[in-house]
User: Which sequence fits this backbone?
């Protein structure tokens, strides 16, 4: 295979766009960790169920994927709110280890419920076939839309967290839960909003993911590990850094796939995260916190 | 309790040995798997004893299985040899990874994530290695073993590990592991080499899991990336252990047995409703997930611990009907905690020893008497500086403490008093300057080494090992100088007598009042046989009369030859106790001298005291 500039450019662009979708998955994970101090591995399970939901809607001729997504986002927002009131209500008081075990349990339930109802088969949506070409790089329209939506949501979330009162309140309650409570912030309510937002992000990520890739039940477990990996790279609680780390991982994956094979690319990613965890557990983009 | 457990192990072994005479092939196969996974979960438990949760033990499992299979297929190597080589490799891998992880201090999500990523990286490595059969794995088709061999092996391994766990829980290493689980910083300060203890537990766990992996490969006659390195194996071991009871000897195998029972039940139901193997498998995994959630919320101690507590309560209730007072409740809690941690310690002592025990007890004798060191060179702090980023917490602090002296270290909040303690005890070593004790450098030593050189400390915020009993708390300290449990227990009891906690020795530390916790903190450091004790605000939060009781204790213990460095805000106590006082402000020594001089020093009055204490009657207890 010839590695012409256009092939490499193609891989980098596709990788970056795929990576921005990974970033969208990871952002929700990072948001809920950073804000409610909940390590929610089940986040990827929500993404998975949105994918199956959109698939069912499209297959049965009810709606176009994007329309289904428009319904899924507010629906998941409400569901997230309810989940924080019920399933997750006691989780933030648990130790890290217990949270990991609890949400892994939930992830197993979600993943294998999907396998039980939809079977272990691989599914995908038919592509529109539309593509855009520039300078020898061909990109599918769905991929471009997916990347744009992911980037847009990352910017919007960043702006929300840094500019609006609610966003600042959420960050404050993450930074110092007791302090925020003493300042009169309703930390419990804020964590419900954060969980709802992370569910809405999961819905967005699921919708755009379903338009560009194949999927199967175990994708839930894979996405959970991937989201964790990305979030570690970006520095657990920094939402925008998670998005950037997602893009990096996507490009890394695409290059590895081009030069070797997808599974070697994955091995390299895990090896890299392994090194990051041992050398810079605070993430690539952040200075080490003082003790 | 001990003999009952021994008996049940013998009964279990006999029952297990009888199965080949009446069981069907299916029964034998299922039991082999249950015993094998019971063994694996027990091995996982060794690491969990230190409070570390691994999501990636599949890494070691796979290394064991793949090594044995590959050696057998390519070199025709003996499978036992293969398993041992696999165990050695797994231990080496664990050593490299965890050595680095413990050095960089990974915790919580980062640590679990690291273990998870390790297994995943190895899974993809196996998929990418042609010599290991890529995603197909390796098949051991030509393998023929005598019947019941694997069954016998898995029973033996299980019995040995359970017995080993029972023994470990009552060994010095076992107590150290539990101390690390309860509170790593406090354990370190009490002379526990936490790094080595964690590494030992981890290596043991990894090696045993690798042997189990090899056995599993032989049992199934194949190794394959997903089943050997996959997440579900790690989660199985975790769930089994949590369900049965982390840190108990019987918990892991019982948890695994319950899980396998449920799994078989679902398989039967699935066949009844013709769900197909994929549907059955999915349902089993859903059940596992739901169990994980349920255990965390409803049964965090596990079945065995819960059952034991019920049993003890039931026995109490039937022995003394109608009396459910506070004392009985506390007693029950203590029994439960004690039995979970270490069966047998309850019988350690019966009657309260007399004061005579206290006077010639090991705790009262400093480790190395000898007045050979010159009086001026006991503890020397020489030009110590410590910065946190731009903030100078200590700059050029020098003072010394003479043998047998009580030196008060006072100053406003943020003056650097606790940082000074941390610099002496090795938690945040001094960046510039040095600390010497009896002429020997303490700078650069780890906290446990400082403790072993005779300098003990207490923490400002009391940090008892809440899950252990009062006696076991003191025992951890005593283990820093006695290798044998019996001797260490003597010293621990003596230390408890010194602080009047002897009567409460079997209560769980979590049930103590604040004053008693402070006393326990004191007793723990006494049990290490210190020559110098650093007391960090031991009076804070106590009433005046409690403060004066503690002050009396300090004087009493000083008379046995122990020196004290005292950080304290309770000025009356400081004035009464201290032979000399050093005043810190903004990380610098602004005054030092006799209490009466300090009380009149204008500089000290302006930055700290606020008004002169010259008129305060310092000779009377506050």
Assistant:
């Amino acid at each position: 295979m010839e590695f012409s500039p256009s092939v490499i450019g193609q891989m980098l662009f596709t990788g970056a766009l795929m990576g921005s979708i990974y970033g969208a998955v990871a952002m929700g994970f990072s948001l809920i960790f950073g804000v409610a101090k909940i390590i929610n591995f089940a986040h990827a399970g929500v993404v998975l169920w949105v994918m199956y939901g959109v698939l069912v809607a499209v297959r049965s001729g009810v709606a176009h994927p994007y329309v289904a997504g428009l319904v899924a986002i507010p629906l998941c927002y409400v569901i997230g709110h309810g989940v924080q009131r019920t399933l997750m209500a006691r989780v933030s008081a648990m130790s890290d280890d217990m949270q990991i075990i609890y949400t892994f349990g939930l992830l197993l339930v979600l993943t294998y419920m999907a396998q039980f109802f939809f079977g272990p088969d691989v599914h995908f949506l038919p592509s529109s076939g539309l593509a855009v070409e520039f300078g020898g790089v061909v990109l599918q329209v769905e991929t471009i839309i997916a990347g744009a939506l992911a980037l847009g949501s990352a910017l919007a979330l960043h702006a929300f967290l840094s500019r609006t009162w609610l966003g600042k309140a959420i960050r404050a309650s993450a930074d110092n839960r007791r302090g925020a409570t003493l300042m009169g912030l309703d930390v419990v309510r804020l964590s419900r909003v954060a969980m709802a937002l992370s569910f809405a992000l999961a819905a967005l990520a699921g919708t755009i993911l379903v338009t560009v890739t194949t999927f199967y039940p175990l994708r839930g477990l894979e996405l959970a590990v991937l989201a964790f990996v990305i979030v570690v790279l970006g520095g657990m609680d920094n939402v925008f850094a998670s998005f950037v780390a997602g893009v990096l991982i996507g490009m890394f994956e695409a290059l590895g796939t081009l030069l070797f094979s997808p599974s070697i690319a994955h091995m390299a990613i895990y090896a890299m995260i392994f090194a990051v965890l041992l050398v810079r557990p605070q993430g690539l983009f952040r200075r080490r916190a003082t003790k | 309790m001990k003999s009952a457990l021994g008996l049940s192990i013998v009964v279990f072994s006999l029952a297990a040995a009888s199965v080949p005479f009446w069981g069907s092939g299916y029964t034998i196969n299922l039991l082999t798997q249950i015993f094998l996974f019971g063994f694996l979960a027990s091995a996982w438990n060794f690491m969990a004893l230190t409070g570390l949760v691994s999501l990636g033990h599949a890494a070691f499992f796979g290394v064991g299985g793949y090594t044995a299979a590959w050696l057998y297929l390519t070199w025709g190597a003996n499978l036992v040899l293969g398993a041992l080589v696999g165990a050695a490799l797994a231990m080496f891998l664990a050593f490299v990874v965890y050595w680095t992880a413990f050095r960089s201090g990974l915790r919580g999500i980062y640590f679990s994530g690291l273990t998870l990523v390790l297994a995943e990286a190895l899974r993809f490595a196996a998929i990418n290695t042609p010599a290991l059969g890529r995603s197909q794995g390796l098949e051991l088709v030509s393998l023929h073993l005598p019947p019941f061999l694997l069954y016998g092996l898995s029973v033996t391994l299980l019995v040995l590990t359970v017995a080993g766990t029972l023994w470990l829980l009552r060994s010095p290493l076992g107590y150290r592991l539990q101390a690390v689980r309860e509170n790593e910083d406090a354990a370190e300060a009490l002379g526990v080499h936490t790094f080595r203890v964690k590494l030992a537990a981890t290596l043991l766990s990894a090696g045993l899991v690798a042997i189990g992996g090899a056995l599993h490969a032989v049992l199934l006659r194949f190794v394959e990336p997903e089943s050997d390195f996959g997440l579900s194996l790690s989660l199985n071991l975790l769930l089994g252990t949590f369900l049965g009871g982390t840190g108990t000897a019987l918990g892991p195998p019982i948890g695994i047995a319950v899980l396998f029972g449920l799994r078989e039940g679902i398989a039967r139901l699935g066949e009844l409703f013709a769900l197909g193997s994929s549907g059955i498998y999915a349902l089993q995994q859903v059940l596992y997930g739901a169990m994980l959630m349920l255990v965390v919320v409803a049964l965090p101690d596990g079945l065995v611990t819960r059952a034991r507590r019920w049993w003890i309560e039931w026995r109490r209730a039937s022995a003394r009907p109608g009396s459910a007072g506070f004392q009985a409740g506390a007693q029950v809690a203590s029994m439960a905690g004690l039995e979970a941690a270490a069966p047998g310690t309850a019988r350690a002592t019966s009657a309260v020893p007399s004061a005579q025990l206290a006077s010639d007890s090991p705790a009262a004798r400093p480790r190395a008497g000898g007045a050979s060191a010159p009086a001026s060179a006991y503890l020397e702090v020489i030009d110590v500086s410590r910065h946190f980023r731009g903030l100078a917490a200590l700059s050029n602090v020098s003072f010394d403490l003479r043998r047998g002296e009580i030196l008060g270290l006072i100053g406003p909040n943020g003056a650097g008093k606790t940082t000074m303690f941390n610099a002496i005890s090795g938690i945040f070593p001094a960046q510039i300057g040095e600390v010497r004790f009896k002429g020997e450098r303490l700078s650069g030593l780890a906290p446990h080494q400082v403790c072993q050189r005779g300098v003990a400390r207490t923490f400002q915020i009391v940090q008892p090992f809440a899950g252990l009993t009062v006696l076991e708390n003191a025992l951890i300290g005593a283990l820093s100088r006695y290798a044998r449990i019996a001797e260490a227990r003597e010293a621990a009891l003596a230390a408890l007598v010194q602080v009047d906690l002897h009567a409460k020795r079997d209560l769980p530390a979590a049930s103590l009042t604040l004053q008693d916790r402070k006393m326990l903190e004191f007793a723990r450091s006494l049990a290490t046989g210190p020559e110098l004790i650093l007391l960090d605000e031991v009076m804070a939060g106590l009433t005046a009369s409690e403060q004066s009781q503690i002050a009396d204790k300090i004087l009493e213990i000083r008379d046995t030859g122990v020196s004290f460095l005292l950080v304290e805000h309770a000025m009356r106590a400081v004035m009464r106790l201290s032979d000399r006082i050093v005043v810190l402000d903004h990380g610098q020594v602004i005054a030092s001298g006799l209490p009466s001089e300090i009380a009149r020093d204008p500089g000290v009055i302006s930055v700290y005291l606020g008004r002169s204490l010259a008129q305060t009657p310092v000779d009377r207890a506050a």
User: Anything to note?
Assistant: The first strand of chain A starts at residue 131 and ends at 134. Chain A has one domain: 15-120+129-279. Residues 15-120+129-279 of chain A form a domain with the ABC transporter involved in vitamin B12 uptake, BtuC fold (CATH 1.10.3470). Chain A has a mean pLDDT of 88.
